[in-house]
Amino acid sequence: MKHDTRPLRSILAFTLIELLVVVAIIAILAAMLLPALASAKDKSKTIKSANNIRQLGVSFALYAGDFEKVMPYATTLNNQNFWIPLIRTNYLRDGLVWMCPKTTRNNTYNFPADWEQISPTPPNPYPAFLAWFGAAGGFIGGITGSYTLNGWAQPAQNGGGANSAKYFQRLEDGRPDSQPLLMDGGWVDAWPDPTDTPPIDARFGGNRPFPGAPNGISMRRVCIARHGRAINIHFMDGHVALTKLDNLWFQNWHAVWTNPPQPNVK
What are the sequence ranges of the domains in the chain? Predict the structure, then answer.
């Protein structure tokens, strides 16, 4: 009987080709798994954002319950009576809840919605992923956030004037299951109207009319590609839904809303 006289080390060792094959297999598996992991991480942030908006909505409901179902509003804005410091001070003090986990603060620019696609060098990240903030002495009260209040969900400003019929006076007015209260956005509030035009690019959103466009700008504050081609919306009945940008014009943003033709959101 013949015995293998080679050293045990040489019998058990891998050849270079075998090692390269193993490395190649690991690389292929990693290339297959990393996109899935990135997608799962992005989805978890979207879910976290929905939970944040839900907590903000609960805080609004608590405020409305404490003040005879009237939503927070002040005719003279300051750092004590605007809806943000009111809710933050008395109902929701956790600063992390005010920020979508996909957003960051850029200290050189506090009004993300005011960006338009007018510069060859966009901000980094795109405005859809920037947070708003304001000085402690201003009406925002030094708070940083990335969610927007539907301005029509407040008592009519200065009586409302020609727009008085559009305001919801209480959360249960109208059809609460289709009426947005809070949502992802690039500024603290917005007053969407059916005639509002989409932004040039949903990665930017917007606040200013671009050349040749009508002056309706409020919808551009919330028409942002923050969760793919969608944003989270907390409706007045308490549910939260991930809503596609193309469908924003078909929500009942105010009390006399009429659906417009399908907009072209880019």
Answer: 45-250
